Amino acid sequence: MDKQPRLLSSKLFQKHRQVEVVLSRSVLYWKEIEKSRKRSSCTSRESETAHSHAVQVCEIVAVHKSEEDDQGDTKRGRLKKAKQQSQLYPHTFTVSYVRRTRQHQWRCSDVSFHCASQALCQQWIQVINEQLSLLTNRPKRLLVYINPYGGKQQGKRIYEQKVAPLFRRACISADVIVTECANHARDHLKTEANLDKYDGVVCVGGDGMFSEIVHGLVTRTQTDHGVDQSRADAELVPCSLRIGIIPAGSTDCICFGTVGTNDPVTSALHIIVGDSQPMDVCSVHHGDVFLRYSVSLLGYGFYGDVLTDSERKRWLGPARYDLSGVKTFLSHNYYEGTVSYLPTADGLGNPRDKVQCRSGCHICQHKHSSKDKQWEMSEEEEKSDKDRWSTIHGKFIAINAASMSCACPRSPKGLSPSAHLADGTTDLILVRKCSRLDFFRHLLRHTNKDDQFDHSFVEVHRVRTFRFQPFQKQLVSREDPSEPPKKKGFSPMCSGQTTCNYSKAHSSWSCDGEILKHAAIQVSGYDVNMVKIEIPDKHHLTRSNHKEKLAVSSNISQLLAGNSYSCYSGTTL
Ligand SMILES: CCCCCCCCCCCCC/C=C/[C@@H](O)[C@H](CO)NC(=O)CCCCCCCCCCCCCCC
Ligand SMILES: Nc1ncnc2c1ncn2[C@@H]1O[C@H](COP(=O)(O)OP(=O)(O)OP(=O)(O)O)[C@@H](O)[C@H]1O
Ligand SMILES: [Ca+2]
């Protein structure tokens, strides 16, 4: 039992057993009276032994008065005892709470208590509700967008059957919009939606749908504050609304990588209890032209080609990625170009340190507590930054920038298992030209415990910003001549043959599942404060508590734009 003062304590009935029920500020606790001398125990979260239970107040979904005949046991026997008890204790209230099950999944469980008087029953409901009302991070009004065509086209059903009943139980009101076309949600958020009415925005769909919401909210916020987001050095204003994701897509890596599972009920419960998790956002520019924001994977070569091919097979649902994956693997293309990057300062770990990002991650907290020191650099530091840029020219099968692990059911540890959600950096993975067999070995390691970076043809760097320039000769002929001229200093330092066996001139970038129309890009401004989610971990089940709004970075150099957004996430709000 926790040490906090009791707010309320009564002897009530649970099913046919008499229980002592105690509420403190943080815990609702009940234990069977008769047998308690023999055995009793509790833990700080929901726990259960033979005779005692404890639920954290912050994980109570709701409390309701129940119907008098709502006494489970009457159906299952013990009729006589239950009948007597219902006469003695006819007034019942039910507490719905979060129950953890296996593999980070959450479920909503109910426990009903029977009281001798109506007044006592009302008192319990009132006191619990008072405690719930103190939890100010919980959303009350949500704007929900459903993509009916994401993943297996189950978005509407998932929301109606699994999520809406939970929101109703938690007294959350939701305005629902089923999208009618791509970018419907983005454009509605950009111009039409009355955002003052809501505590958060929820998307029911996959990573692409989440990306739409991010773009809609970020653009709206910049427009409202007169910020020109197309400038790479713009100091962006954080969004005040959080984003929640109900997974209903094909990859759902943002949900999986933050919550630990792709389960709509788990996500709905995280949203209800107000869990939150900031996330890095980076901006992608082509010269002075803003292309997109990214929170998960920017992939050129293999993943870009998989995505391009898979778009033609959307009708196949999530299986399109496997088919296109095999086809792309067999094509075995590689691409020539130059990658330049600015490595991170010390203290933010490295992609091979095996430190995984979990609730209360010290790397991400360090980033926050240092008040974005990393971004607030003196002129001298800025100058020395220029010397710290590294440049690699080569032939690559894949160039991947993972701002988070990109864990998903296909690859439960992800493309970069030690990447952090909110450290302001991305892990840049370069897979050089190698044999098919070697590339297969590398891919296979994404599905088992072996280190996918432990190959001579793979290198990985934790970076703050990077640029890519495809081999120039193709660039000139392929890029759109109507685009503004590229920035100086952004041209490749490469020379060499133009194409080789199995080599096409250019691939495309997949940016969180959307194809970018330029191959030459600069990626910058990693910063935080998006998505909210608890990041569960078998060994460390503590609540993530990142609520602070971070200072927006930027002003470091022309190439850095600070992007700091507050969004709900995958499970969050
Ligand atoms: C031998 C088996 C190896 C399996 C290796 C699996 C690695 C999977 C890594 C997945 C990383 C996902 C990163 C997330 C990207 C999202 O922003 C984006 C939008 O949702 N999703 C995809 O681009 C969707 C990307 C989906 C990529 C699927 C790739 C499948 C490769 C299959 C290769 C088979 C070789 C077989 C040889 C006979
Ligand atoms: N009503 C709609 N009709 C057609 N396309 C839509 C509609 N609503 C949204 N979209 C677009 O569908 C695309 C894919 O959606 P989503 O991300 O939800 O599913 P997915 O691609 O199957 O999953 P994942 O991104 O996780 O791989 C998004 O780019 C989004 O812009
Ligand atoms: Ca990161």
Provide an overview of this structure:
Residues 137-288 form the DAGKc domain. This is DAGKc domain-containing protein. InterPro entries: ATP-NAD_kinase_N, CERK_C, CERK_PH, Diacylglycerol_kinase_cat_dom, Lipid_Phosphate_FormReg, NAD/diacylglycerol_kinase_sf. GO terms for molecular function: ceramide kinase activity. The chain has 573 residues and is an alpha+beta fold. The chain has 2 domains: 6-133, Pleckstrin-homology domain (PH domain)/Phosphotyrosine-binding domain (PTB) (PH-domain like); 143-527, Tumour Suppressor Smad4, CATH 2.60.200. Helix content is 25%, strand content 27%. The protein is built from 14 helices and 22 strands. Strands 13, 14, 15, 16, 17, 18, 19, 20, 21 and 22 form a 10-stranded antiparallel beta sheet that branches. Strand 1 (6-14) and strand 2 form a beta hairpin. Helix 4 runs parallel beside helix 8. The relative contact order is 0.14. Residues 147-151, 179-184, 205-209, 212, 249-252, 513 line the site of adenosine-5'-triphosphate (ATP).
Query: What ions, cofactors and ligands are bound?
Result: N-((E,2S,3R)-1,3-dihydroxyoctadec-4-EN-2-yl)palmitamide, adenosine-5'-triphosphate, calcium ion
The CATH architecture of the largest domain can be named as: Sandwich
Largest sheet: 10 strands, antiparallel
What assembly state would you assign to the polypeptide chains in this entry? single chain
Determine the structural class based on helices, strands and strand pairing. alpha+beta
Give the domain tally: 2
Q: What's the CATH first level of the largest domain?
A: Mainly Beta
Q: Strand tally, please?
A: 22
Q: What value does the Rg take, in angstroms?
A: 26 Å
Distance from N terminus to C terminus (CA atoms, Å) equals 30 Å
Shape: elongated
Helix coverage percent: 25-40%
Strand content: 25-35%
- Count of DSSP helices? 14
Average pLDDT, rounded to a whole number, is 81
InterPro entries: ATP-NAD_kinase_N (IPR017438), CERK_C (IPR045363), CERK_PH (IPR057465), Diacylglycerol_kinase_cat_dom (IPR001206), Lipid_Phosphate_FormReg (IPR050187), NAD/diacylglycerol_kinase_sf (IPR016064)
GO cellular component, one term: membrane
Pfam families: CERK_C (PF19280), DAGK_cat (PF00781), PH_CERK (PF25382)
Protein name: DAGKc domain-containing protein
